[in-house]
Amino acid sequence: QRVQYGIDMIYRLQLEDAQRHFGGLIDDYPDHPLGYFFLAMTNWWWVLLDLDDHRHDEVFYARLQDCIDVCDARLEIDEDDFEAVFFKGGAIGFRGRLRGDRDQFLRAARDGLRCLPLLKHSRQLAPDNKDVLFGQGLYDYFADVMPRKYPVIRHIAWLLVRGDRERGLQRLQEAASNGQYARTEAQFLL
Predict the structure, then answer these.
(1) How confident is the model over 134-177, as pLDDT tens digits?
(2) Residue-wise over 99-130: b if at least 16 C-beta within 10 A, else e?
(3) What is the pTM of this model?
(4) Which of the residues 4, 11, 163, 169 has the least number of beta carbons within 10 Å of its own beta carbon?
């Protein structure tokens, strides 16, 4: 409930309140990636409010890296730590999304390739988790659509695992209907 309360603040665009909320979650649980991930998501929405404004990019990237670092520390102890695998995949995936928005297509593709095994591993660890479908759906959709939309990507598309637009949309719909953390983000993307 505490996490959902903070997520709701993000989607009501109460971003400063959400930052304080997730900062408190980090203070209480400094070794758990969830607070770090959603703190970064507050910055994601600052970015989304004006994609032409790059002022929030570096803070967003730094907060994602904080999440990745916490995940890596947990994965050194247990490579099957679901939360660490899941949130690391999410952090790398969102970093790739912004890099794609910033026309850094090679870096975005690299993040997609780094994210994909984490998504698969998290799906193996929790096959019924609908939030995992959000990341898989995003990958499927963008890996199929982006090379067709941006000719420059066609030159690096061979690096990507083949995507499927329709499967991606189906996975996003499932996350939008049944996800816990990704429900609203999936609805927004759809």
Answers:
(1) 988 988 888 788 777 776 666 665 566 678 899 999 999 999 99
(2) bbeeeebeebbbbbbebbebbbbbbeeeeebb
(3) 0.89
(4) 4
